[in-house]
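Researcher: I'm preparing a figure for a lab meeting and need a structural model of a single chain. I don't have an experimental structure, so a prediction will have to do for now. The sequence is pasted below. Please return the structure as tokens so I can convert it later.
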Amino acid sequence: MKFYFGKNGLQKQVNIALCVYLSTMTTGYVMGWMAPVTHKLQDPKLSPLSRKITETELSLVGTIVIVAGIFGPYISGYLANVRGRKLCLLLGSSITVVGQILVATAKNLIMLYIGRILVGIGISMNEVISLVYLGEIASTNIRGVLLTLTAIFRSFGTLFVYSLGPYVQYSIVGYVGALLAVINFFGLLCIPETPLYYVLKDNEKRAKEVLNDLGRSDDFQTVLALKDDEQQSKGKDWTQLLTVKSNRKAMIITVTLNILQQSSGIIAIVFFATRIFELVGSSIRPDISTIIIGVTQMLSSFVTPVFVERNGRKILLLLSTAFSSLSLVVLGVYFYIDEVDHSLADNIKWLPLVTLIIFLVAYNFGFAIIPFTLMGELFTSNVRSTGSAVSITIGWVFSFVMTTAFGSLITTLGGDVTFWMCSGVCAVAFVFTLVYVPETRFKSFIEIQEILNKYAKIYLGQVLVGYSLGWTAPIIPKLQDPATSPLPYQITEMQRSFVGSILYLGGLSGPYLSGYLSNVKGRKPCMIIGGLVAFVAYIILGTARTLVMIYIGRFLSGFGVGIITVMAIVYLGEIASTHIRGIFLTGVGIFITGGSLLAFSVGPFVSYSVSAYIGACLSLGYTIKMFFVLETPIYYALKDKEHAVKKVLEDLGRMDDIEKVYLSKQEFEESNSLKDWKELFTLKGNKKALTISIILNISQQGSGLLSVTFFATTIFELAGSSVEPWIATIVIGCTQLFGGLLTPIFVERCGRRILLLISTALCCLSMLVLGVYFYLHHIDHWVVQKITWLPLASLIIFYISYDSGLGIIPNALSGEMFEPNVRSKGCAVAITLSWLTGFLVTTTFGTLVTVVGGHVGFWFFSAVCGMTFLYCLFFVPETKGKSLVEIQEMLSK
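Model: Understood. Here is the structure written out token by token.
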């Protein structure tokens, strides 16, 4: 007998999903229960308990549901394949009903704890199985929508308890949760078992009936294929979860996203929303603020289903994590201002609510939903329950730790540091998504498994480059202070500039060594050499006791990162497919920015030697990692290793490009080293590529970016900014990272050229404004006292603009425009001239500011950016969507 109904298969799928969504709504209700109930449990007049509970006991009431939730997924993971998905859902709802009744009728803490434990087990069972169930019941074209809708109902459950809880007595809040679970139980009685489970139990007739009713009769063979996978691995779920490559990658992706999701602080914010607003003394009543947040959660959840099948999972996750990170940075700034008792805090009491609304909107349209969607898609059928259980379990463990520690973190570190930590987690999630998470839109389970078997890249070397470039910003003040300097004397202005700029002198020779070795020994050995040189350099810096040792360390550091920079561009340009090459190459700039942010964030709080040893650890980690990456197919082709070429291309999913690889080999064989240099300067296509690369790379340095980066702390001290210099430097680092994150999102949609034009125009304007500020400061104009915030605002705009175009696109173009035989040499020449310019600008910057004033220096940078805009407008071609061969043909015309 069929209990589910609908006019057609699609409508029936939706109606079935609605019955399942009541489970997720109950989960949301339970997770939000603490926010309105906390006050009741602490008030003797409202509490059902005989005594007032302590802070620790109260925290345990909230977090014990998460601890209990660790066990639920394993119960359902086992029963799902033995007794069926539907039975697990019914069992989970039944346990939740019992738990909620115990919570509602509790008269002592033990009874309350037992009730919360049972609730945790029940909702966690259904959390896993609902994803498995919907993933197996839904058609491919609406699977993403049905899976993402779970978050809407979870958010609605949270909103429901936020809106109801403050206005009814304690027991009513518990009984309403029990009622939701009862309604859910009866709804689940009306849904069918999944067709895959029927096939696994050799009931093909029933499986066909369900598929026909769901309008999925064409999917029967696909379901049978999944059964074959299941039978071949029967009893080997755990083994295959860890040994099958696609499952292993699915596990890494889902576990990492779940850890980052919970570490973002979302559960702590939901549990303690009311207390957060009480803590900051918000101008809006805490209970009203909590309801507003609940409404925000629910409404923002509606965004994802609208776009998930249109724009894809990955783009939503990228946008979500980026804006989540930025909003938490702002919230941390508010807590900092409030903690130092700045007068500004009294005028912006509304800011915590606004930033949390932005955070929850951003979080709920991607980060809250997509990880669960991916769990329902990425694993093979036989390990889907087990894999989802492990991922959710680990996520809930981190949720327990974060929720338990949240109150202590705010008390010990302060709200500012706590929310900045959460912001950093969201930024890490963005980077992880960009590099590792595949797009699964419109793909069947089998297609998704094939994507996960493809190759992934590591950008740790670019983090090292960025760390080396940003290292001097927090270190120069230490070298000037006898208490923190490793030197027995104070260094002069010129020596200070040389510590920063000598990195460039070292970087001049590195690219030429790698340019030669890359064709003789391979791209991979060059990257290993670069990492080893950088490691030695940072050991020397860490143990330096004389200025000469610091100079040697910085020179070698430049030599190492110079090799790493060139080889990353060459390597990624050769390894990536045409449609994602731009994203991979722009990723170089993002990770360089991330490395600079690391230097900005850590440097002020550790000793000189520790900052150097961190660089040594990055170098060593990068070197070890490079032993495990593949060589490029073009190098293997040059060495006549046909089998290796095919293996790498197959692993990259680029077998269609094999003819292009051998065409590149043919061009290389027709040349020699002397001929390469000649062709670099004589062939029209290479000449154009070289001219464009050189001008754009010189413009990068002429824009003043590295001078500002090297002396960021000093600039804020000179400007008399109202923001602490080290805080301003960290904010700028975060801004750089945020700006860099924008480029990969748009580079393959809008193109390289349009991003360069927008970037250079805004850089020009921001440097112009900063120059005006320094001019007003120079003439001691009274208005300066009113706009001490302007240097930070101008530099934020500059960095967002720079890192969303000018800081990244030139590297991408260098990896695309040259012919294969001159690519290493062309990149080496462009980067050499770039670093030489950087050395000159950085060395003279301090003197320039002293002699003619900061305004002249910044106006010069503005003029360079303006001229770069004009050059891009008239001379830089668009390479979006073109293969390397097509780009070279375009430049040769």
